[in-house]
Specification:
single chain, alpha+beta, Tetrahydropterin Synthase, Chain A, five-stranded mixed beta sheet, elongated, binds zinc ion
Length: 122
């Protein structure tokens, strides 16, 4: 490879799932009590170096993500978050990751198999 390779980036991703109930007053579809099977994806981005090894320990990251996600599993999200939207779930996960010294490039929360919200922290 020649010089330009230094600009290459690697994206590391781990996924997890949890099930929870919520209701969102004023929301057309989520107003009444119901549940979702959520999928969470945590992305880390790192430049690819000349002699790159695994720069993000995916096993460690997966364990940290699982630990956080388990606090949501089989809960009523309104008991945990003031407004349990995908955005607020993602922001909560980001805040908890930051507390453990993990700075994701983004966190994506799927509420159904066909829709998700992705938050890019500052
Ligand atoms: Zn809902």
């Amino acid at each position: 490879m020649h010089g330009g390779n230094q600009m290459a980036k690697a994206v590391y991703r781990v996924m997890g799932t949890f099930s929870a109930s919520h209701k969102m007053p004023g929301h057309s579809k989520c107003e009444n009590l119901h549940g979702h099977n959520y999928t969470v994806e945590v992305f880390m981005t790192q430049p690819v170096l000349e002699e790159s090894t695994l720069q993000v320990d995916l096993t460690e990251l997966k364990a940290s993500v699982r630990e956080i996600i388990e606090t949501f599993d089989h809960t009523h999200l309104n008991d945990i978050l003031d407004f349990p939207s995908c955005e607020q779930i993602a922001l909560s996960i980001i805040a908890q990751l930051h507390e453990t010294g993990i700075y994701p490039s983004s966190v994506r929360v799927w509420e159904t198999p066909v829709q998700w919200v992705e938050i890019y922290p500052e």
